[in-house]
Amino acid sequence: MQKLIKMLYVAPLPIDLNNLDGVQKKIIAQTEAYTKKGIFVTIITYSNGFINLIEVSTKKVSILSKAINKIDVIVYARKIIDDFDVFYIRYPLSDLYFIRLLNKIKQKHKKIIVEIPTYPYDKEGNETIRRKITHFIDKIYRNRLKKYVDRIVTFTGENEIFGIETIKTINGFDFSKVTPSITPCHTNECINLIAVSAMYRVHGYDRLIKGIINYKRKEGKRNIVLHLVGEGDFIDYYKQLVLDGHITDNVIFHGKVFGEKLYKLYENIAIGVNSLAIHRQDLEKES
């Protein structure tokens, strides 16, 4: 009889099963795909001030300990290494805590797979002093990864990252959980666009907002309405651009929206807008 493989998915970011954002949905979709292949997957994460263990097959959530950030998750994961065979880790950037976790896992002769969601990432969110310090520390420690990590999962075409062989894949999404809209879009008088994201610099919606401002100044005939869904570092900048450009009727800020309310927003939307400024992060393509 084949042995049941037990995987710990280390997700050093908040996950709320009741209000999943884009990244969290991808993580859940990944783990459910592994479960369908006969792997018993448990996610270690944190939310609402506590470290949680989520059994993917049953959605059972166990509260383990208090937590305020990703370091608490990484430190706690060291305590439960013996319970798992394989470790799949969403890359939190390297530091002393992360290297210690990898070292302890490897001492137990366990397999380690690290997913790097964005590569290259050195310019990702690098607008703050805190983020610049985090990246500086990462550059000091990441060269040690090849001592411990068996494979790096990437959504790029890279064969090797940090001297470690990659597994090339695509950014996962569970289409079975989405019902396509069949509502016809009428665009003769108004074109509705929607962008749903965490509103980082790389999304580049400022370029689109400035385009709408320019279109209005040139007396474009059709009404353009952009729906921005989400919160993040650049949302205040976008709001100021809209005010300065006198297009408050053309850009609607919805904040964070989930579930059925989000699907309802998609009705009568003609165009979905993806990232428009990946070049700001030295990226040439995305998944």
Q: Which SSEs are present, and which pair or pack?
A:
Blueprint: E1 5-14, H1 22-36, E2 39-47, E3 50-55, E4 60-66, H2 70-77, E5 86-90, H3 96-107, E6 111-116, H4 129-141, E7 151-154, E8 160-161, E9 164-168, E10 190-196, H5 205-217, E11 223-229, H6 235-244, E12 251-255, H7 259-266, E13 271-272
Parallel strand pairs: 1-2, 1-5, 5-6, 6-7, 7-9, 10-11, 10-13, 11-12
Antiparallel strand pairs: 2-3, 3-4, 8-9
Helix pairs in contact: 5-6
The gist of it:
Helices cover 28% and strands 26% of the residues.
Helix content: 25-40%
Q: What is the element string, with H for helices and E for strands?
A: EHEEEHEHEHEEEEHEHEHE
Distance between the termini: 38 Å
DSSP strand (E) fraction?
25-35%
Low-confidence stretches: none
Shape: globular
Total number of helices: 7
- What does the average pLDDT come to? 91
> What is the CA-based Rg, rounded?
21 Å
